[in-house]
Amino acid sequence: MANDPTHQFLVNKIVPIEIGGIDFSFTNASLFMVATVAAAAGFLYFTTGQRGLVPSRMQSVSEMSYEFIASMLREGAGSHGMKFFPLVFSLFMFVLTANLLGMVPYFFTVTSQIIVTFALAILVIGTVIVYGFYKHGFGFLKLFVPSGVPGALLPLVVSIEVISFLSRPISLSIRLFANMLAGHITLKVFAGFVTSLSALGALGVAGAILPLLMTVALTGLEFLVSFLQAYVFAVLTCMYLNDAVHPGGH
Amino acid sequence: MSVTPASAESTPFEIAQAETPATSHETPADTHAAQPAGEVHTETGVAHGDEHATGVFPPFDQTTFASQLLWLAITFGLFYLLMSKVVIPRIGGILETRHDRIAQDLDEASRLKAEADAAIASYEQDLASARAKGNAIASTARDEAKAKADAERAKIEASLQDKIAGAEARIAEIKAKALADVGAIAEETTAALVEQLIGAKATKAEIASAVKTAAGE
């Protein structure tokens, strides 16, 4: 088995598909996207099948995730933002499930691919821009002009606002991607120490205890990071959507 | 793919692989750009397709971007549809039903409470009216008893008054009679006195007139 810590991020073709000279193969990444969707949708669908007035444990997990995102969005973007609830809920559940599935050994982590997180971030920012202009027309541009700024400072402030807006999809995507990537690499490196040290005989086995403990601790940390990054992604999505709903800023 | 300096441990395995004619990647310098596409490895026990091992860091391998974007669009789009059309309305419905049910139960509880309050109020009212009635009965009875006692007393007083009057009348009668007798006694006494003093008998008429004169006529 390869000890190369980046090996786990390799995208391998399973069913080669090529359309118009562009490679659209069904890969392991695609497989785990399908698995993510199947796991998340399947969980939410089957746990709520009973429609119990008094929820079962699993049903309350689904309900809690629903109410968690609903209150997050209501706080972040107000009641007008609730029309984006399916989007934010889908994003959160997709990212969370992809992150958690990636924690299973030998599983591919969909969110460790910059193109995936970037696409999700562009989806968010695209929604903000399209809805903002659709709803407020050029009034959406007030987003870049904070009220109460003296005229002399206005060009500077506006340029800062524009830059910060443009950097949002980058920071949003890189935050998730880098966290997942770094976490998995760290885990792999420490786990690699365990195997390579234990190959060195009795002393090595004793020395391998430390990286083994690190690996266990890091695994716990990575589960936390998996949840936290999905949460952060969803919270920032809510904040950005708030700009689309209330570009005046309040 | 696995040909980086970090993969030293896997060297025996790689050498074994390298013996298969299709693979030629145990020299790090020989980048995998030379590797024919579609080559099948069995390194991880799974048959892979092309590994895109172009030497770049895998997440930045642009040759996989188109495929990832397409499949992300398909899977996430499907997921979004499932969420917005099936799961969210369903969970929303469950929560709505529960919310309605709780509100309904609360309404029912407040209705029952109002009923209980009304029952308590009517009970209190009954109690108060019963108490007032009891007081009224008691005071009527007291008044009646008092009136009766007063009447009784008046009657007794009247009869006593009668008796007193009767007794006074009799006393007066007896007194008059006694006073009348006083004259006769005086006459007898005078007759006896006269006889003793002068030794002669006075006539009755003389004595009577003398007594009358002495009596202050």
From TrEMBL, chain A:
Gene3D superfamilies: ATP synthase, F0 complex, subunit A (1.20.120.220). It is found in: Cell membrane; Membrane. It holds the Pfam family ATP-synt_A. SUPFAM superfamilies: F1F0 ATP synthase subunit A. GO terms for cellular component: plasma membrane; proton-transporting ATP synthase complex. Keywords: ATP synthesis, Cell membrane, CF(0), Hydrogen ion transport, Ion transport, Membrane, Transmembrane, Transmembrane helix, Transport. GO terms for molecular function: proton-transporting ATP synthase activity, rotational mechanism. It is a multi-pass membrane protein. CDD domains: ATP-synt_Fo_a_6 (cd00310). The chain crosses the membrane at residues 29-48, 84-108, 114-134, 143-166, 197-217, 223-241. NCBIfam families: ATP_synt_6_or_A, PRK05815.2-4. Key component of the proton channel; it plays a direct role in the translocation of protons across the membrane. Belongs to the ATPase A chain family. HAMAP family: ATP_synth_a_bact (MF_01393). PANTHER family: ATP SYNTHASE SUBUNIT A (PTHR11410). This is ATP synthase subunit a.
From TrEMBL, chain B:
Residues 106-177 form a coiled coil. GO terms for cellular component: plasma membrane; proton-transporting ATP synthase complex. InterPro entries: ATP_synth_b/b'su_bac/chlpt (IPR002146), ATP_synthase_B_chain (IPR050059). The chain crosses the membrane at residues 69-88. Pfam families: ATP-synt_B. Residues 19-38 are annotated as: Disordered. Keywords: ATP synthesis, Cell membrane, CF(0), Coiled coil, Hydrogen ion transport, Ion transport, Membrane, Transmembrane, Transmembrane helix, Transport. It is found in: Cell inner membrane; Cell membrane. It is a single-pass membrane protein. One of its GO terms (molecular function) is proton-transporting ATP synthase activity, rotational mechanism. F-type ATPases have 2 components, F(1) - the catalytic core - and F(0) - the membrane proton channel. F(1) has five subunits: alpha(3), beta(3), gamma(1), delta(1), epsilon(1). F(0) has three main subunits: a(1), b(2) and c(10-14). The alpha and beta chains form an alternating ring which encloses part of the gamma chain. F(1) is attached to F(0) by a central stalk formed by the gamma and epsilon chains, while a peripheral stalk is formed by the delta and b chains. Belongs to the ATPase B chain family. Component of the F(0) channel, it forms part of the peripheral stalk, linking F(1) to F(0). The b'-subunit is a diverged and duplicated form of b found in plants and photosynthetic bacteria. F(1)F(0) ATP synthase produces ATP from ADP in the presence of a proton or sodium gradient. F-type ATPases consist of two structural domains, F(1) containing the extramembraneous catalytic core and F(0) containing the membrane proton channel, linked together by a central stalk and a peripheral stalk. During catalysis, ATP synthesis in the catalytic domain of F(1) is coupled via a rotary mechanism of the central stalk subunits to proton translocation. This is ATP synthase subunit b. It comes from Shinella granuli.
